[in-house]
Structures are given as structure tokens and as C-alpha cells.
Amino acid sequence: MLKFIGKRLLMLIPVLIGITLVVQLLLEVTPGDPAKLMLGMNATPERVAALREELGLNDPFLVRYGRYIWNLCHGDLGNSFMTGRPVFSEMIQRFPYTLVLVCISLFLSVVFGIPLGVFASTHQHTWKDNLAMFAALFCVSMPAFWFALMLIQRFAVKWRLLPLSGIASWKGWVLPCVALALGFTATITRQTRSNMLEVIRQDYITTARAKGVSEVTIKYRHALKNAVTPVIMVVGGMFGMMLGGALISETIFSIPGLGQYTMQALNSRDYPVIQSSVLVLSLLFAIVILLVDIIFALIDPRIRSQYISKRQKEARTDQKKEDQEKGAAHSEGR
Amino acid sequence: MEKKRKNSRLREIWFQLKTNKLAVVALIILIILIIVAILAPVIAPYHYAEQHPKDSYAPPSAKYLLGTDKLGRDIFSRLIYGSRYSLSMGVIAVAIAAVIGITVGSVAGYYGGWVDNLLMRFLDVYQSIPMFLLCVTLAAILGPSLRNAIIALGICTVPGYARIMRATVLTVREKEYIEAEKAINAKDPRIILKHIIPNAMAPIIVEITMGVGSCILSGASLSFIGLGAQAPISEWGAMISDARSVMREAPQLSLYPGICVMLAVLSCNLLGDGLRDALDPRLKN
Predict the structure, then answer these.
(1) Which positions in chain A touch B138 (Cβ < 8 Å)?
(2) Cβ within 8 Å, pair B136-A244
(3) DSSP three-state, residue B175
(4) What is the helix, strand, coil percentage profile of chain B, to 5?
């Protein structure tokens, strides 16, 4: 198991290097001069040139990339061009908001999505299944930002039940989380249903039925257990999509998280912030995928068996040898 | 001969698809949307940017079917023109992504070995950046405009097509007819273009249909945050963005474009579902 985790951790390194390289390259091909942007429209060319020198923008690409990586290794993500404050501390401050938003939404989608999917699959060929599936497809096709606006219109503007934006109290979290979770709930519902229907056709379900296990036990223990594991994989990928969704969600509901920070930086071309946001959010995504893989390996014996420890393996082969020898001795004796 | 065989294959798919009522309805809606998009200047009573300052926030009437916005622009006409921008956003972005994805996927799948390894590791890095984040970043860096948003969308959705193509090519590669081609010493490009790609198209077609939907959705999101279509272009996402600031005075303004986006995306998804069942009935639940 440790070997598996170690291997996956090592695979993270080239991915991280790749991401930094991609981001650096993206900014490289960008038209527009950050020094000019910082100083405003009516800056003299001399001042722009001086600032370019100061920021090290005149150095060759590899030198700048090397410097960026070097600073990164020291936990220095640079300073924001706009505010001049260090990006790292700003991000640490904003990080919890995004994490809370994404985690609550993910939790909501799993808690509602899986039971709904099971419900639909156990009522296949009835109007209940059709309705649930159509509703799910409906929600998948709905623009999340539009749904958020509709929610605001109803709950905040018309009925004044919940705040329009901001997160002064717990009430402020309700709309952003529901808006972000809706599409993903529908996706999980669809995924769970199709997995359930696939599993129910397997031989071991027929076996269970043949030996007289009650239908409830078959559905909720035998089938669900096997159908839910692939859903976990989907949830991992969904985390990344939710981080993307948080960009819009946080902007609409003015939540001071990483998403809003990124959007502001994109609008003002604040390069160090853009770079760090992409890096940090991707890293977060990569870690979640890693966790999902590990959980998956722990749950699924087929993967677990590939990475059993050396001692266990030796013990097993010894056991086998012993059995074989015993068998050989036995046949010789005859 | 060749043509006749292709026709019969198409007819077979159509025959399967016909049994799925929802997919047929979706197909009809999509065809109507495409016709509306093409004939927008003929159908729409006004131009999308035409302002009638006297009729600001006019209620629905015979003159303005769905009312007007703040500048007195006819919502109905704007929606009709919007279908042009929204649909073309989806279709062109997917075309870019599918062409690159199919090329990368079939090369990686056909040659295998280090080529495959290199391309797939590259895709790993690509996909480790959350897709929408990459898309927003690209669109912002290229500069906000409809064209750049389409390019950004196209580039960001490549990995999905490449992976599916590679997976299908891996199975097609082992078929006897490919071996036969190799035996008569056919060149690699010929094998890939004439035999591998046509036989690996089924899953890609489904992915493309669904992809148009999701690109319309992401495109609307990009326009909504100001990185896609710019005023006065009446792309649906941009219309919702415009309506956001006047939500108290005119709530209906954000309603209509949202419904349009949903209708288009829903149709793509339903058709995609139907096509998947028609192309591979084994998967049907």
C-alpha cells in the first residue's frame, strides 16, 4: 500500500512541473505589458523600462522560469502587481472560503445524488424513473450561473428570505452551495443509476436471488456496494469542475474566496496572482484525485492485491511452495 | 456501391434512433434552432442592436413579442440573433477540439510505444488543471472577445476527444482488416485515415453531440463573466449578464435567454443519449 501511495506521490512531481511550465508559457505569449498596466495609461516610456528592469521582465524565459521555481520552493509566490501584497498570505486567507463552498456542495450532491440514482434504478421502466432521469438531465443542462440568478431573484429579491450576497451569517452560504451543487447532484444521480443497472445484471446478483436473499438486501448491500465505487471516481473529477464553478459562484455571491481572487486578477492581468491561482487550484485538484485513488485502492481488493507488501508476497509464495512440496510428497508416497 | 453501403448504415442508425421519442424531439428542436440561426435576419423583426429609447422596458405586446430591455432593444429579436452566436460557439469550439483530439488520439493509439506515452503524459498535465479554470485563463489572456472565447473553449476540451479516440483506436487496431491493409503494404496515413478513423467514429460522434451542448454552456458562462461575446452582440450568456444588473426592475429579462441555453443544451444531451443507444445497443439499459 505504501508503495502505491509513494508511486502516486512521485507522479505528482512531473505534473506540477508541467503545470508551472504551461502557466509560464501562457503568460509568455500574452500580448500586453504588465509594467505598462501597473503604471497606467500615461506613464513615460522611461518609467516603464525601469519597472520592467526592476521586475526582471527583460530576462530570458528560462531565467525567469528558474527564478519562479526557485522562489516557489521557498514558499514565495511573488507579490501582486496590483496591491503589492504577497500572494501567498492572501491565498491562505481566502482558501478556507473556497474549500467550505466546494466541500458543502460536494457533500450535498453526494447525499442527494446517490439515493436518487438508486431510487431511479430500482423503479426502472416506471414513470418515477423517467421523471427522475428527465429532471436530472434538465439540471445538467441548466447554466449554473443562471440558476444562481433565478434563486437570488426568488429567495433574496422577492421573498427576502436569504441575503442577496455576502456570507455574514450561515444564511449566506445556502444559495451559493445549492446553486453549485445542483448540476453535480444530477450528474451523480445519472451515474449511480447507470452503474446500478449494470451491476444488477451481473451473475452474483442472480446467485444472490437464487439463494433466496431478500430483494432489499440485494439492492442495498450487494448491488449498491459495487455500483458506488465508480461513483467515487466521478466525485474526484467533479472536485476540479467545482473549483471552476467556484470562480463564477464566488463572483456572483461575492464570497471572498480563491475564485473571486482569481477573477479579479484575470480582469486586471495580475500575472503573479493568475499564475499562483492556477497552480494552487490545480495542486488542490491533484491532491483530491490522489486521495480518491488511495481510497479507491483501499476499497477495491483488485487494486490492493497489486500492491501488497514484499513480506506478504514472500509469505504467500512460501505458502504456495510448501503446498506444492506437500502435494509432491503426497503423490510420491502413493 | 460505396455510397449505398454508407446510406444503409445511416438508415440503420436512424431506424434505431427513431424508437427513442425524446431523441427525435431533441433532433427536431436542434434543427429548428439551426434554421432560426441561419435565417435570423429574415425571421427577427428588428436588428439585435436596434434601440428604441422611448420603449424602454416595454411589456410583451404585438410590437415587441417578449418586451424590450433597458435600451428598448427587442428581446425576441435578440434571442433569435443570439442563437447564431451561441450555437456557433458550441459548434466551432467542438470542431476545433474534435479535429485536434481525433488526430492526437488516433496517432497515439495507432503507433503506441513512446509516442503514445509522450502524448498521454502531456494530456495528464493538461487535465490536471481544472478545465473551466484553464478556459477562463486562456480566454482572459487572449483578450475578451467571441472569437477568443471559442478558441479557448476548443483548446480546453481537446483531452476528452483524444482519450476516447485513443481508447477506440486501440481496439480497432487489432482487427483483421487492419492486418490485411498492412499485409498489402498500405502506408500508415492511409490506414489511419481510411480505416482506423471511420471505424472508431461511433463513440466520438456521441461525444461530439454532447460536447456541443457543454460548449454552449461553458461559452454562455464565459460571456456571462465578460470574457466571451462583447456588447452589443446578443449571445445568450451575455444577455443574462446584461439582465443581471436590472434584476429588480425586469426579472423576466434574465429568464428567456436562460431557457434558450437550457433548451439547446438539453436537446444536445438527449440526442447524444439517443445516439449512444442507437450506435451501440449493447449499452442500452
Answers:
(1) 26
(2) yes
(3) coil
(4) 75, 0, 25
Q: Check residue B149 and give its pLDDT.
A: 94
Q: Does A33 touch chain B (CB under 8 A)?
A: no
Query: Between A and B, how many residue pairs show a Cβ–Cβ distance under 8 A?
Result: 134
Fold (topology level) of A87-307: MetI-like fold (1.10.3720)
- B222 near B136, Cβ under 8 Å? yes
- The domains of chain B are located at 2-283
Nearest-CA residue of chain B relative to A268?
B140
- The C-alpha cell at B94 is 467542438
pLDDT tens digit string along A47-80?
888 877 777 777 788 888 888 888 888 888 888 8
Torsion sign, CA atoms A204, A206, A210, A212: positive
B213 to chain A: which residues are within 8 Å by CB?
141
What is the average pLDDT across A309-334? Answer: 63
Residues of chain A with CATH 1.10.3720.10: 87-307
Interface check for B141 against chain A (CB to CB < 8 A): the answer is yes
Which chain A residues are Cβ-neighbours of B126 within 8 angstroms?
A: 22
Q: Which of A146, A197, A247 to mutate to test the interface with B (most CBs of B within 10 A)?
A: A146
> A36 pLDDT exceeds 80?
no
Compare all CA atoms of chain B with the CA of A154 and give the residue at the minimum distance.
Answer: B251
Report CA-CA distances (Å) from A79 to A102, A274, B197: 26, 11, 49
**B136 Cα to chain A: minimum distance (Å):** 8
Are residues A187 and B269 in contact, defined by beta-carbon separation less than 8 angstroms?
A: no
Residues in chain A within 8 Å Cβ distance of B122: 18
For chain B, list residues with pLDDT below 50: 1, 285
- Using CA atoms, how far apart are residues A235 and A256, in angstroms rounded to an integer? 25
At residue B78, the pLDDT reads 92
Kindly state which CATH superfamily the domain B2-283 is placed in.
MetI-like (1.10.3720.10)
Contacts of A102 (CB under 8 A, 6+ apart): A180, A239, A242, A243, A246
Instruction: Using a CB–CB cutoff of 8 Å, tell me whether A195 touches chain B.
Output: no
User: Could you give the ipTM of this predicted complex?
Assistant: 0.89
Q: Do A18 and B130 touch (CB under 8 A)?
A: no
- Cα A102 from Cα A86, distance rounded (Å): 25
* E-only strand ranges, A4-43: none
Confidence of residue A333 (pLDDT cuts 50, 70, 90): very low
Residue A301 to residue A234: CA distance in whole angstroms: 19
Identify which of A25, A10, A55, A62 has the alpha carbon closest to the alpha carbon of residue A278: A25
- Does A82 reach chain B within 8 Å, measured CB to CB? no
